[in-house]
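REQUEST FORM: STRUCTURE PREDICTION
Request ID: SP-0412
Submitted by: Lab K.M.
Chain count: 1
Length (residues): 547
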Amino acid sequence: MRKKMLGILMLLVLILLAACQSKDATKDTEKKESNTINIMETGEIPGVNPTTADNSVSFRAINQIYEGLYRLDKDGKPALAMAAAEPEEQNGGKTLIFKIREDAKWSNGTPVTAADFEYAWKKVVDPKSAAAYGPQMEEIVKNATPILNGKMDPDQLGVKALDDKTLQVDLENPVPIFKDLLTTGTFFPQNQAFIESQGDRYALSSENLISNGPFKLENWDGTKKNWNYVKNNKYWDKKNVKANKINVQVVKDTNQALNLYTTGKLDRIELDGEFVSKYKDDSDFNKEFTGNSIYLKMNQGKDGQKTDLANIHIRRALAMAIDKQSMVERLLANGSAVLNGNVPAKIMFDPKTNEDFRKQNGNLLNYNPTEAKKNWELGLKEIGKSDLTVVLTAGDSSLEKQQTEFMQDQLQKNLPGLTINVKTVTQKASFVADVSQDYEMLLGGWSGDYSDPLTYLNLFLTDSPGNHTGFSNAKYDELVLGAKGKLSNNPEKRWEALLEAEQILLKDNATLVPLYQGGRAYLQKPALQDYFAYPIGSENYKWIAKK
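STATUS: Completed
RESULT:
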Protein backbone atom coordinates (compact mmCIF):
# COMPACT_ATOMS: atom_id res chain seq x y z
CA MET A 1 0.00 0.00 0.00
CA ARG A 2 2.88 2.36 0.93
CA LYS A 3 4.49 1.68 -2.48
CA LYS A 4 1.20 2.39 -4.21
CA MET A 5 0.73 5.68 -2.33
CA LEU A 6 4.33 6.70 -3.10
CA GLY A 7 3.73 6.00 -6.79
CA ILE A 8 0.60 8.11 -6.78
CA LEU A 9 2.42 10.98 -5.07
CA MET A 10 5.28 10.81 -7.59
CA LEU A 11 2.78 10.85 -10.42
CA LEU A 12 1.07 13.92 -8.96
CA VAL A 13 4.42 15.68 -8.61
CA LEU A 14 5.28 14.91 -12.23
CA ILE A 15 1.89 16.20 -13.38
CA LEU A 16 2.36 19.37 -11.32
CA LEU A 17 5.86 19.93 -12.73
CA ALA A 18 4.62 19.39 -16.27
CA ALA A 19 1.82 21.88 -15.69
CA CYS A 20 4.26 24.46 -14.32
CA GLN A 21 6.61 23.94 -17.24
CA SER A 22 3.70 24.27 -19.67
CA LYS A 23 2.60 27.45 -17.93
CA ASP A 24 6.16 28.85 -18.04
CA ALA A 25 6.45 27.94 -21.72
CA THR A 26 3.15 29.66 -22.41
CA LYS A 27 4.38 32.77 -20.59
CA ASP A 28 7.65 32.70 -22.56
CA THR A 29 5.71 32.39 -25.82
CA GLU A 30 3.38 35.24 -24.85
CA LYS A 31 6.34 37.39 -23.82
CA LYS A 32 8.14 36.66 -27.09
CA GLU A 33 5.01 37.44 -29.11
CA SER A 34 4.41 40.64 -27.13
CA ASN A 35 7.91 41.76 -28.12
CA THR A 36 7.24 41.18 -31.81
CA ILE A 37 6.16 44.27 -33.76
CA ASN A 38 4.36 44.29 -37.11
CA ILE A 39 4.69 47.42 -39.28
CA MET A 40 4.38 48.42 -42.93
CA GLU A 41 6.75 49.99 -45.44
CA THR A 42 5.81 51.90 -48.59
CA GLY A 43 8.15 50.05 -50.92
CA GLU A 44 10.95 47.52 -51.26
CA ILE A 45 14.37 48.41 -49.84
CA PRO A 46 16.57 49.42 -52.81
CA GLY A 47 19.76 48.90 -50.80
CA VAL A 48 21.32 49.14 -47.34
CA ASN A 49 24.85 50.26 -48.12
CA PRO A 50 25.32 53.55 -46.21
CA THR A 51 27.79 54.76 -48.84
CA THR A 52 25.48 54.50 -51.82
CA ALA A 53 22.02 54.89 -50.23
CA ASP A 54 19.98 57.64 -51.87
CA ASN A 55 16.36 57.28 -50.72
CA SER A 56 14.17 57.37 -47.64
CA VAL A 57 13.34 53.64 -47.58
CA SER A 58 17.02 52.67 -47.59
CA PHE A 59 17.94 55.20 -44.92
CA ARG A 60 15.02 54.06 -42.78
CA ALA A 61 16.45 50.52 -42.85
CA ILE A 62 20.04 51.72 -42.38
CA ASN A 63 19.03 53.68 -39.28
CA GLN A 64 17.86 50.50 -37.55
CA ILE A 65 20.85 48.30 -38.30
CA TYR A 66 23.76 50.78 -38.17
CA GLU A 67 24.78 53.48 -35.75
CA GLY A 68 27.12 56.45 -35.92
CA LEU A 69 28.94 58.49 -33.31
CA TYR A 70 25.56 59.93 -32.34
CA ARG A 71 21.95 58.72 -32.57
CA LEU A 72 18.80 60.82 -32.21
CA ASP A 73 17.27 60.38 -28.78
CA LYS A 74 13.57 60.17 -27.93
CA ASP A 75 13.27 63.96 -28.26
CA GLY A 76 15.00 64.03 -31.65
CA LYS A 77 18.27 65.45 -30.28
CA PRO A 78 21.73 63.99 -31.01
CA ALA A 79 22.83 61.68 -28.17
CA LEU A 80 26.10 59.79 -27.73
CA ALA A 81 26.06 56.42 -29.49
CA MET A 82 29.31 54.88 -30.83
CA ALA A 83 31.12 57.84 -29.24
CA ALA A 84 31.91 57.17 -25.58
CA ALA A 85 31.96 60.88 -24.69
CA GLU A 86 31.77 64.33 -26.23
CA PRO A 87 34.88 65.00 -28.31
CA GLU A 88 37.96 66.84 -27.13
CA GLU A 89 38.21 70.08 -29.13
CA GLN A 90 41.52 71.36 -30.46
CA ASN A 91 42.65 73.98 -32.98
CA GLY A 92 39.81 76.36 -32.14
CA GLY A 93 37.17 73.71 -32.66
CA LYS A 94 38.48 72.64 -36.06
CA THR A 95 39.87 69.36 -34.69
CA LEU A 96 37.70 66.90 -32.76
CA ILE A 97 39.05 63.85 -30.94
CA PHE A 98 36.44 61.14 -30.38
CA LYS A 99 36.76 58.05 -28.20
CA ILE A 100 34.86 55.01 -29.51
CA ARG A 101 32.97 52.90 -26.96
CA GLU A 102 34.97 49.97 -25.63
CA ASP A 103 31.81 47.82 -25.79
CA ALA A 104 30.92 48.78 -29.39
CA LYS A 105 30.78 45.65 -31.53
CA TRP A 106 29.64 44.50 -34.94
CA SER A 107 26.95 41.83 -35.05
CA ASN A 108 29.62 39.20 -35.82
CA GLY A 109 31.37 40.04 -32.53
CA THR A 110 34.33 42.03 -33.89
CA PRO A 111 34.98 45.43 -32.27
CA VAL A 112 33.83 48.68 -33.87
CA THR A 113 37.02 50.70 -34.26
CA ALA A 114 38.09 54.19 -35.24
CA ALA A 115 39.42 52.64 -38.46
CA ASP A 116 35.86 51.64 -39.38
CA PHE A 117 34.90 55.32 -39.42
CA GLU A 118 38.01 56.39 -41.30
CA TYR A 119 37.41 53.72 -43.95
CA ALA A 120 33.70 54.56 -44.37
CA TRP A 121 34.13 58.34 -44.59
CA LYS A 122 36.96 58.12 -47.12
CA LYS A 123 34.83 55.76 -49.19
CA VAL A 124 31.95 58.26 -49.18
CA VAL A 125 34.04 61.09 -50.67
CA ASP A 126 35.84 58.90 -53.21
CA PRO A 127 34.46 59.93 -56.64
CA LYS A 128 34.58 56.24 -57.64
CA SER A 129 31.83 55.54 -55.10
CA ALA A 130 29.48 58.14 -56.65
CA ALA A 131 27.92 58.51 -53.21
CA ALA A 132 24.73 60.57 -53.55
CA TYR A 133 25.28 62.23 -50.18
CA GLY A 134 29.03 62.56 -50.24
CA PRO A 135 28.44 66.33 -50.58
CA GLN A 136 27.26 66.34 -46.96
CA MET A 137 30.97 66.42 -46.14
CA GLU A 138 31.71 69.13 -48.71
CA GLU A 139 33.21 72.31 -47.19
CA ILE A 140 32.81 70.68 -43.75
CA VAL A 141 35.31 67.83 -43.33
CA LYS A 142 38.80 68.98 -44.29
CA ASN A 143 39.70 68.40 -47.98
CA ALA A 144 36.30 66.83 -48.79
CA THR A 145 35.61 69.37 -51.57
CA PRO A 146 38.77 68.82 -53.67
CA ILE A 147 38.48 65.06 -53.11
CA LEU A 148 34.87 64.99 -54.35
CA ASN A 149 36.00 67.04 -57.36
CA GLY A 150 38.75 64.52 -58.16
CA LYS A 151 41.55 66.96 -57.35
CA MET A 152 42.88 65.19 -54.26
CA ASP A 153 43.25 61.61 -53.04
CA PRO A 154 40.57 60.27 -50.61
CA ASP A 155 43.36 59.38 -48.16
CA GLN A 156 43.79 63.11 -47.56
CA LEU A 157 40.32 63.49 -46.04
CA GLY A 158 40.38 65.01 -42.56
CA VAL A 159 39.65 61.81 -40.66
CA LYS A 160 42.22 59.53 -39.02
CA ALA A 161 42.25 56.60 -36.62
CA LEU A 162 44.92 57.44 -34.04
CA ASP A 163 44.47 54.01 -32.46
CA ASP A 164 41.74 51.37 -32.29
CA LYS A 165 39.43 53.54 -30.20
CA THR A 166 40.54 57.12 -30.98
CA LEU A 167 39.24 59.01 -34.01
CA GLN A 168 40.53 62.42 -35.09
CA VAL A 169 38.29 64.56 -37.29
CA ASP A 170 39.59 67.74 -38.91
CA LEU A 171 37.07 70.31 -40.13
CA GLU A 172 37.42 73.21 -42.53
CA ASN A 173 35.65 75.37 -39.94
CA PRO A 174 33.78 74.74 -36.69
CA VAL A 175 30.30 73.69 -37.82
CA PRO A 176 27.24 74.18 -35.56
CA ILE A 177 25.27 71.40 -37.31
CA PHE A 178 28.09 68.82 -37.33
CA LYS A 179 26.71 66.81 -34.42
CA ASP A 180 23.37 66.54 -36.27
CA LEU A 181 25.19 65.37 -39.40
CA LEU A 182 26.86 62.59 -37.43
CA THR A 183 23.45 60.99 -36.76
CA THR A 184 22.94 60.40 -40.51
CA GLY A 185 23.85 57.33 -42.56
CA THR A 186 26.55 59.08 -44.57
CA PHE A 187 28.72 59.23 -41.43
CA PHE A 188 28.14 55.66 -40.19
CA PRO A 189 31.11 53.24 -39.87
CA GLN A 190 31.78 50.24 -42.09
CA ASN A 191 33.97 47.21 -41.50
CA GLN A 192 36.59 47.02 -44.24
CA ALA A 193 37.63 43.39 -43.64
CA PHE A 194 34.05 42.15 -43.88
CA ILE A 195 33.20 44.25 -46.93
CA GLU A 196 36.28 43.06 -48.81
CA SER A 197 35.48 39.45 -47.90
CA GLN A 198 32.06 39.86 -49.54
CA GLY A 199 33.29 41.55 -52.71
CA ASP A 200 30.47 42.46 -55.10
CA ARG A 201 27.96 40.62 -52.91
CA TYR A 202 28.24 43.13 -50.06
CA ALA A 203 24.88 44.54 -48.94
CA LEU A 204 22.94 42.69 -51.65
CA SER A 205 21.17 40.56 -49.05
CA SER A 206 20.97 40.13 -45.29
CA GLU A 207 23.44 37.25 -45.63
CA ASN A 208 26.10 39.68 -46.87
CA LEU A 209 25.79 42.18 -44.02
CA ILE A 210 27.01 42.85 -40.54
CA SER A 211 25.62 45.71 -38.49
CA ASN A 212 26.39 47.66 -35.33
CA GLY A 213 22.95 49.09 -34.54
CA PRO A 214 20.06 47.94 -32.34
CA PHE A 215 18.88 45.39 -34.93
CA LYS A 216 20.11 42.98 -37.55
CA LEU A 217 18.38 42.72 -40.93
CA GLU A 218 17.14 39.21 -41.73
CA ASN A 219 15.24 37.50 -44.57
CA TRP A 220 16.01 40.26 -47.09
CA ASP A 221 17.43 39.67 -50.55
CA GLY A 222 16.90 43.01 -52.29
CA THR A 223 13.57 42.03 -53.85
CA LYS A 224 11.37 40.75 -51.01
CA LYS A 225 8.23 42.54 -49.95
CA ASN A 226 8.76 41.54 -46.33
CA TRP A 227 11.76 41.26 -44.02
CA ASN A 228 12.66 41.29 -40.34
CA TYR A 229 14.66 43.39 -37.94
CA VAL A 230 15.94 41.10 -35.17
CA LYS A 231 17.44 42.33 -31.91
CA ASN A 232 21.23 42.58 -32.14
CA ASN A 233 22.55 40.96 -28.97
CA LYS A 234 26.02 42.37 -29.65
CA TYR A 235 24.68 45.95 -29.50
CA TRP A 236 26.22 48.01 -26.69
CA ASP A 237 22.82 49.22 -25.39
CA LYS A 238 20.83 46.03 -25.95
CA LYS A 239 19.20 46.30 -22.50
CA ASN A 240 17.15 49.24 -23.83
CA VAL A 241 16.08 47.45 -27.01
CA LYS A 242 12.71 45.94 -26.06
CA ALA A 243 11.56 44.38 -29.35
CA ASN A 244 12.91 40.94 -30.13
CA LYS A 245 11.68 41.14 -33.70
CA ILE A 246 10.08 43.64 -36.06
CA ASN A 247 8.23 42.18 -39.03
CA VAL A 248 8.01 44.58 -41.98
CA GLN A 249 5.60 44.16 -44.89
CA VAL A 250 5.42 46.28 -48.02
CA VAL A 251 1.87 47.57 -48.44
CA LYS A 252 1.10 49.96 -51.30
CA ASP A 253 -2.69 50.06 -51.05
CA THR A 254 -4.48 51.72 -48.13
CA ASN A 255 -7.43 49.31 -48.29
CA GLN A 256 -5.05 46.40 -47.90
CA ALA A 257 -3.28 48.15 -45.02
CA LEU A 258 -6.59 48.67 -43.22
CA ASN A 259 -7.52 45.03 -43.64
CA LEU A 260 -4.20 43.95 -42.15
CA TYR A 261 -4.59 46.42 -39.28
CA THR A 262 -8.14 45.44 -38.36
CA THR A 263 -7.22 41.74 -38.41
CA GLY A 264 -4.28 42.34 -36.06
CA LYS A 265 -1.55 41.68 -38.62
CA LEU A 266 -0.16 45.23 -38.50
CA ASP A 267 0.33 47.42 -35.44
CA ARG A 268 0.55 50.74 -37.29
CA ILE A 269 -0.53 52.00 -40.72
CA GLU A 270 -0.62 55.36 -42.48
CA LEU A 271 -3.84 56.83 -43.91
CA ASP A 272 -4.72 59.35 -46.62
CA GLY A 273 -7.70 60.96 -48.31
CA GLU A 274 -11.13 59.52 -47.58
CA PHE A 275 -9.67 57.13 -45.00
CA VAL A 276 -8.59 60.06 -42.83
CA SER A 277 -12.16 61.37 -42.69
CA LYS A 278 -13.49 57.90 -42.00
CA TYR A 279 -11.16 57.15 -39.08
CA LYS A 280 -10.44 60.62 -37.64
CA ASP A 281 -12.63 59.93 -34.60
CA ASP A 282 -11.16 56.48 -33.95
CA SER A 283 -9.27 56.17 -30.65
CA ASP A 284 -6.28 54.74 -32.57
CA PHE A 285 -6.09 57.75 -34.92
CA ASN A 286 -3.21 60.25 -34.82
CA LYS A 287 -2.09 63.12 -37.03
CA GLU A 288 1.15 65.16 -37.14
CA PHE A 289 3.14 67.34 -39.51
CA THR A 290 6.50 66.33 -40.98
CA GLY A 291 9.46 67.96 -42.68
CA ASN A 292 8.80 66.11 -45.96
CA SER A 293 9.11 68.44 -48.94
CA ILE A 294 7.23 66.89 -51.88
CA TYR A 295 7.76 68.17 -55.42
CA LEU A 296 8.00 67.35 -59.10
CA LYS A 297 11.52 67.27 -60.49
CA MET A 298 12.06 68.49 -64.05
CA ASN A 299 14.92 67.15 -66.13
CA GLN A 300 16.62 70.06 -67.89
CA GLY A 301 19.16 67.75 -69.53
CA LYS A 302 22.43 65.99 -68.84
CA ASP A 303 25.77 65.33 -70.55
CA GLY A 304 25.37 68.54 -72.53
CA GLN A 305 22.04 67.50 -74.04
CA LYS A 306 19.22 69.95 -73.20
CA THR A 307 15.54 69.02 -72.99
CA ASP A 308 12.47 71.17 -73.64
CA LEU A 309 12.25 71.59 -69.87
CA ALA A 310 15.49 73.58 -69.99
CA ASN A 311 13.25 76.51 -71.02
CA ILE A 312 12.55 78.65 -67.96
CA HIS A 313 9.06 79.65 -69.14
CA ILE A 314 8.02 76.03 -69.66
CA ARG A 315 9.18 75.21 -66.13
CA ARG A 316 7.42 78.23 -64.63
CA ALA A 317 4.23 77.27 -66.42
CA LEU A 318 4.34 73.74 -65.05
CA ALA A 319 5.12 75.04 -61.55
CA MET A 320 2.10 77.38 -61.48
CA ALA A 321 -0.50 75.15 -63.13
CA ILE A 322 -1.41 72.75 -60.29
CA ASP A 323 -4.07 73.55 -57.69
CA LYS A 324 -2.10 72.36 -54.68
CA GLN A 325 -4.76 73.31 -52.15
CA SER A 326 -7.24 70.92 -53.76
CA MET A 327 -4.57 68.22 -53.76
CA VAL A 328 -3.88 68.41 -50.03
CA GLU A 329 -7.57 68.71 -49.13
CA ARG A 330 -9.03 66.13 -51.50
CA LEU A 331 -6.33 63.51 -51.91
CA LEU A 332 -4.24 63.75 -48.75
CA ALA A 333 -6.26 65.20 -45.86
CA ASN A 334 -3.50 63.90 -43.55
CA GLY A 335 -2.13 67.17 -42.22
CA SER A 336 -0.17 68.00 -45.37
CA ALA A 337 -0.01 71.70 -46.30
CA VAL A 338 0.59 73.55 -49.56
CA LEU A 339 4.29 74.30 -50.02
CA ASN A 340 5.36 77.11 -52.34
CA GLY A 341 9.06 76.69 -51.59
CA ASN A 342 11.53 73.88 -51.05
CA VAL A 343 12.27 74.30 -47.34
CA PRO A 344 9.25 73.30 -45.19
CA ALA A 345 7.62 75.33 -42.43
CA LYS A 346 7.57 75.11 -38.62
CA ILE A 347 10.94 73.37 -38.25
CA MET A 348 13.78 75.82 -39.00
CA PHE A 349 14.02 79.30 -37.51
CA ASP A 350 16.13 82.45 -37.89
CA PRO A 351 18.95 82.29 -35.28
CA LYS A 352 18.47 86.00 -34.48
CA THR A 353 14.72 86.67 -34.75
CA ASN A 354 13.42 83.08 -34.39
CA GLU A 355 11.18 83.66 -37.43
CA ASP A 356 10.23 80.65 -39.48
CA PHE A 357 12.35 80.18 -42.64
CA ARG A 358 9.30 79.48 -44.78
CA LYS A 359 7.48 82.58 -43.54
CA GLN A 360 10.56 84.75 -44.10
CA ASN A 361 11.12 83.59 -47.67
CA GLY A 362 7.46 83.62 -48.56
CA ASN A 363 5.68 81.91 -51.44
CA LEU A 364 8.08 81.48 -54.34
CA LEU A 365 5.94 79.54 -56.84
CA ASN A 366 2.18 79.88 -56.30
CA TYR A 367 -0.72 78.29 -58.15
CA ASN A 368 -1.61 80.89 -60.79
CA PRO A 369 -3.26 79.44 -63.91
CA THR A 370 -3.33 82.80 -65.70
CA GLU A 371 0.41 83.39 -65.32
CA ALA A 372 1.02 79.71 -66.03
CA LYS A 373 -0.73 80.01 -69.41
CA LYS A 374 1.23 83.16 -70.32
CA ASN A 375 4.54 81.46 -69.54
CA TRP A 376 3.41 78.34 -71.38
CA GLU A 377 2.65 80.22 -74.59
CA LEU A 378 5.93 82.14 -74.39
CA GLY A 379 7.88 78.96 -73.70
CA LEU A 380 6.32 77.08 -76.63
CA LYS A 381 7.16 80.01 -78.89
CA GLU A 382 10.80 80.02 -77.73
CA ILE A 383 11.27 76.28 -78.32
CA GLY A 384 9.44 76.48 -81.66
CA LYS A 385 6.58 74.11 -80.81
CA SER A 386 2.80 74.36 -80.67
CA ASP A 387 2.36 71.44 -78.30
CA LEU A 388 4.43 69.27 -75.98
CA THR A 389 4.26 65.76 -74.56
CA VAL A 390 5.91 65.09 -71.20
CA VAL A 391 6.23 61.77 -69.36
CA LEU A 392 5.59 61.94 -65.62
CA THR A 393 7.24 59.08 -63.68
CA ALA A 394 5.91 58.08 -60.26
CA GLY A 395 5.75 55.16 -57.85
CA ASP A 396 3.00 52.57 -57.78
CA SER A 397 1.38 53.16 -54.38
CA SER A 398 -2.35 53.91 -54.42
CA LEU A 399 -1.69 57.46 -53.19
CA GLU A 400 0.93 58.21 -55.85
CA LYS A 401 -1.40 56.93 -58.54
CA GLN A 402 -4.14 59.28 -57.35
CA GLN A 403 -1.74 62.20 -57.19
CA THR A 404 -0.38 61.70 -60.70
CA GLU A 405 -3.90 61.40 -62.12
CA PHE A 406 -4.85 64.66 -60.39
CA MET A 407 -1.72 66.48 -61.65
CA GLN A 408 -2.19 65.10 -65.15
CA ASP A 409 -5.69 66.56 -65.23
CA GLN A 410 -4.59 69.93 -63.82
CA LEU A 411 -1.61 70.38 -66.14
CA GLN A 412 -3.48 69.40 -69.29
CA LYS A 413 -6.47 71.58 -68.38
CA ASN A 414 -4.44 74.70 -67.57
CA LEU A 415 -1.78 74.39 -70.30
CA PRO A 416 -3.39 73.92 -73.76
CA GLY A 417 -1.31 71.73 -76.02
CA LEU A 418 0.32 69.81 -73.16
CA THR A 419 -0.03 66.04 -72.95
CA ILE A 420 1.08 64.31 -69.76
CA ASN A 421 1.75 60.58 -70.07
CA VAL A 422 1.98 58.93 -66.65
CA LYS A 423 4.61 56.22 -66.24
CA THR A 424 3.90 54.12 -63.14
CA VAL A 425 6.83 52.09 -61.80
CA THR A 426 7.76 50.41 -58.53
CA GLN A 427 9.11 52.71 -55.86
CA LYS A 428 12.52 51.08 -56.26
CA ALA A 429 12.46 51.76 -60.02
CA SER A 430 11.41 55.35 -59.31
CA PHE A 431 14.50 55.83 -57.15
CA VAL A 432 16.67 54.39 -59.92
CA ALA A 433 15.10 56.68 -62.52
CA ASP A 434 15.80 59.65 -60.27
CA VAL A 435 19.45 58.82 -59.58
CA SER A 436 20.18 57.98 -63.22
CA GLN A 437 18.20 61.06 -64.34
CA ASP A 438 16.21 58.81 -66.63
CA TYR A 439 12.98 60.81 -66.51
CA GLU A 440 11.30 63.94 -67.88
CA MET A 441 9.22 64.81 -64.83
CA LEU A 442 9.30 62.78 -61.63
CA LEU A 443 7.26 62.80 -58.43
CA GLY A 444 9.76 62.92 -55.59
CA GLY A 445 10.77 64.82 -52.53
CA TRP A 446 13.06 64.95 -49.53
CA SER A 447 12.45 64.51 -45.83
CA GLY A 448 15.66 66.10 -44.60
CA ASP A 449 18.35 64.60 -42.39
CA TYR A 450 18.74 67.37 -39.84
CA SER A 451 16.93 70.56 -38.79
CA ASP A 452 18.65 73.08 -41.03
CA PRO A 453 17.68 74.50 -44.47
CA LEU A 454 20.99 73.17 -45.78
CA THR A 455 19.66 69.60 -45.78
CA TYR A 456 17.20 70.62 -48.54
CA LEU A 457 19.34 73.08 -50.50
CA ASN A 458 22.54 71.03 -50.49
CA LEU A 459 20.97 68.60 -52.98
CA PHE A 460 21.06 71.05 -55.89
CA LEU A 461 24.72 72.06 -56.03
CA THR A 462 26.31 71.90 -59.47
CA ASP A 463 27.59 68.39 -60.30
CA SER A 464 26.50 67.11 -56.90
CA PRO A 465 25.74 63.36 -56.96
CA GLY A 466 22.38 64.28 -55.39
CA ASN A 467 21.44 66.80 -58.10
CA HIS A 468 19.54 64.99 -60.85
CA THR A 469 17.85 67.95 -62.54
CA GLY A 470 20.46 69.56 -64.78
CA PHE A 471 20.23 72.76 -62.70
CA SER A 472 23.49 74.67 -62.28
CA ASN A 473 23.98 78.19 -60.95
CA ALA A 474 27.30 79.68 -59.81
CA LYS A 475 25.73 82.12 -57.35
CA TYR A 476 23.62 79.37 -55.82
CA ASP A 477 26.74 77.22 -55.35
CA GLU A 478 28.59 80.11 -53.73
CA LEU A 479 25.78 80.73 -51.23
CA VAL A 480 25.21 77.10 -50.26
CA LEU A 481 28.91 76.25 -50.01
CA GLY A 482 29.43 79.42 -48.01
CA ALA A 483 26.71 78.33 -45.57
CA LYS A 484 28.61 75.06 -45.11
CA GLY A 485 32.02 76.70 -44.85
CA LYS A 486 33.18 80.28 -44.39
CA LEU A 487 29.82 81.56 -43.09
CA SER A 488 29.39 78.77 -40.54
CA ASN A 489 30.57 81.02 -37.69
CA ASN A 490 28.30 83.91 -38.68
CA PRO A 491 24.78 82.52 -38.06
CA GLU A 492 22.82 85.50 -39.39
CA LYS A 493 24.80 85.92 -42.63
CA ARG A 494 24.66 82.17 -43.10
CA TRP A 495 20.87 82.28 -42.72
CA GLU A 496 20.58 85.11 -45.24
CA ALA A 497 22.68 83.11 -47.71
CA LEU A 498 20.31 80.13 -47.43
CA LEU A 499 17.26 82.35 -47.92
CA GLU A 500 18.79 83.83 -51.07
CA ALA A 501 19.81 80.40 -52.36
CA GLU A 502 16.24 79.11 -52.17
CA GLN A 503 15.01 82.17 -54.09
CA ILE A 504 17.54 81.45 -56.86
CA LEU A 505 16.50 77.80 -56.97
CA LEU A 506 12.77 78.43 -57.29
CA LYS A 507 11.77 82.05 -57.85
CA ASP A 508 14.51 82.74 -60.41
CA ASN A 509 14.92 79.29 -61.98
CA ALA A 510 11.78 77.23 -61.20
CA THR A 511 13.99 74.17 -60.81
CA LEU A 512 11.21 72.22 -59.09
CA VAL A 513 7.42 72.17 -58.93
CA PRO A 514 6.89 72.45 -55.16
CA LEU A 515 3.70 70.69 -54.11
CA TYR A 516 3.22 70.21 -50.38
CA GLN A 517 4.77 69.68 -46.99
CA GLY A 518 3.86 66.18 -45.98
CA GLY A 519 1.66 65.34 -43.02
CA ARG A 520 1.30 62.01 -41.30
CA ALA A 521 -2.08 60.51 -40.40
CA TYR A 522 -2.00 57.03 -38.95
CA LEU A 523 -3.68 54.34 -36.91
CA GLN A 524 -1.59 52.81 -34.14
CA LYS A 525 -2.48 50.06 -31.70
CA PRO A 526 -2.55 51.33 -28.08
CA ALA A 527 -0.12 48.56 -27.08
CA LEU A 528 2.55 49.86 -29.48
CA GLN A 529 4.77 52.40 -27.77
CA ASP A 530 7.95 54.39 -28.38
CA TYR A 531 7.73 54.35 -32.18
CA PHE A 532 9.70 57.50 -32.97
CA ALA A 533 8.99 59.16 -36.31
CA TYR A 534 10.62 62.58 -36.19
CA PRO A 535 9.60 65.58 -38.31
CA ILE A 536 13.18 65.49 -39.65
CA GLY A 537 15.32 62.34 -39.89
CA SER A 538 14.63 58.64 -40.32
CA GLU A 539 12.33 56.75 -37.98
CA ASN A 540 14.01 55.21 -34.95
CA TYR A 541 12.89 51.76 -33.78
CA LYS A 542 15.48 51.39 -31.01
CA TRP A 543 12.96 51.72 -28.16
CA ILE A 544 9.85 50.39 -29.90
CA ALA A 545 7.81 48.00 -27.75
CA LYS A 546 4.43 46.44 -27.06
CA LYS A 547 3.09 46.85 -23.55
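NOTES: Confidence is low (pLDDT under 50) at residues 25-32.
Reviewed by: T.R.
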